[in-house]
Request: fold
Amino acid sequence: MPLSLRTSVNAACPALNLLGDFVASAPPDLPDGVRRAVRNSIVDVFGCILGGARMPVAVASAKTMRSLGADHGSARVFGTAHGAPAHTAAMLNAVSGHALEFDDWEIPGNTHPSVVLFPSLLAVMEEGTPGMDLLMAYVAGFEVIARLGEALNFEHYDAGWHSTATLGSIGAAAAVARLHGLSPVQTAHALSIAISRASGLTCQFGADTKALQAGFAAENGVVSAALAAQGATGRLEALEHPRGFAALMAGVPPERIGAALEKLGNLLAVAEYGILIKPWPSCGYTHRVMCCALDLARMHPGAGAIHSIDLHLPDFHAAILPFHHPRDRHEALFSLPFVAAMGLAREGLTLDDLEQERWQDPDIARLIECTNIHPFRPSRPLLNYDPLEPDRMRVTLRGGGQLEAVCALPPGTPEFPVSDKAVVEKFRQNAGHGSDADLEELMAWPETHCARSLFERIGDLTCMAPAVRVA
Reply:
């Protein structure tokens, strides 16, 4: 049901007050579609955390925190035998969850929401926290991320800010504030504090720091909400102030913020945009090209018959994928030619392919070499995905023929949702464990009376895949 809220941003009612009102007051009567989307995303990111815990960046982060004395606490650090303080556990689990580049994402904020929201909430959940409280807190945090994304993007992202780290910090603070039952005013102050902690750069893509930035965002959420709960304050006009977040980090006017926040209390952002669960472990901006490649893989006579590959995509997507010839796993995740080659030659991309460094295989390396990228300026640049301007792949064969495919929307959008069965199978592959009974219980986490115990028990049962080779 719609929630009656103040929705006009002005001097008497700053934007953070509006967000604080929503986060603290949003009712728990969620549509079934929203519950299903959040349920699946939590299961998906939990699998990414368990599978990513042995990645080098996750191992290094855990060792570093222990060396600094953060090796005792009640919050679980998955993949280790150690607990940690809540803010440290949130950071470490988020780093693990983002290390595989396999966690979900959303469109308006261009963030990976679950890998920030879930670790921050998991770290502060009490023993008796019911699943529905976790679900509502997630929805509140997602709403903040998505509506701020509507207001600030794509100026914010195009300027080079890693929105998972920036908007994610603010959304995580909102989620934790909701779970802790902070008042509307306390919540607004938590968001203001998070704004001053929010940072992360897209130029770090292709390095460990990308995953670390997700960890910093989860940590920021826990710390900001805790500070506000103890009475710490921030300027409540920090979002729309002439020297505030929107002006300095996006260059957009306050009117854009007001227009986005008018939606609060009506259609939830989860229902409007969905949460995109990844079928392949690579940047989401490669997935439309992968869909094109899979279509053409069923039509061409074999990778050896391909003379050249031409890829057409929006310029701001191409800018995030700078690695034409990947040298390592980090770069391969953001290499459009590599993903296209894997789709055409191997009909997909798996974690094992990355472990085996398939970009060095002769047939894949040849296809990478003969790939040409053609960025175009979109006619509606405020749309992350414009269905009228799809990604396009043209394959020219050695015999002179040409094949072409287009893809307007990637898998995971409301138009092309990922099935429950696919979510379960992906969890089983990422976590290396999952009896039918355990996974059935995990998929029912919103109905559990003690969500923390459930996730900890499933995490303890997990049989990790062999350790990732460290170069």
Observations:
- Residues 15-273 form a domain with the 2-methylcitrate dehydratase PrpD fold (CATH 1.10.4100.10).
- The first helix runs from residue 15 to 25.
- The chain has a mean pLDDT of 93.
- The chain has two domains: 15-273, 284-407.
